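ok, trying the design again with the full structure, not the truncated one.
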């Protein structure tokens, strides 16, 4: 029996530039989320930064069913490393294509 993994995608905007290519920045975000969600719930969510849309906008992928806890945890993150940051979720979707078109419509890129 083959089971297809179902994902949800979240369009996220930050108050300052966030470089998804920097492993340290991703690690700080992941550890902050793990602190709010707990290790077990974080592992079930399988949070990943899927793609960057701009300097402060990215699309994250999570397992379906865990998007509510990830959205809540993202809203609680106020510091990454030693710098203040605000994280805002713009939209969630079942397809990345829809969020990429939304990103182009909102931010022009």
């Amino acid at each position: 029996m083959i089971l297809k993994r179902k994902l949800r995608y979240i369009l996220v905007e930050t108050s300052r530039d966030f470089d998804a290519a920097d492993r340290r920045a991703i690690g700080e975000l992941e550890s902050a989320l793990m602190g709010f969600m707990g290790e077990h719930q974080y592992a079930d969510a399988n949070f990943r930064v899927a793609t960057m849309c701009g300097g402060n906008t990215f699309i994250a992928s999570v397992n379906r069913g865990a998007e509510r806890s990830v959205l809540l945890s993202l809203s609680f993150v106020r510091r990454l490393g030693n710098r203040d940051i605000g994280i805002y979720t713009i939209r969630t979707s079942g397809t990345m294509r829809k969020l990429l078109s939304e990103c182009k419509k909102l931010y022009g890129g």
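Keeping the full-length input from now on. Helices lie at 23-37, 39-45, 67-76, 96-107.
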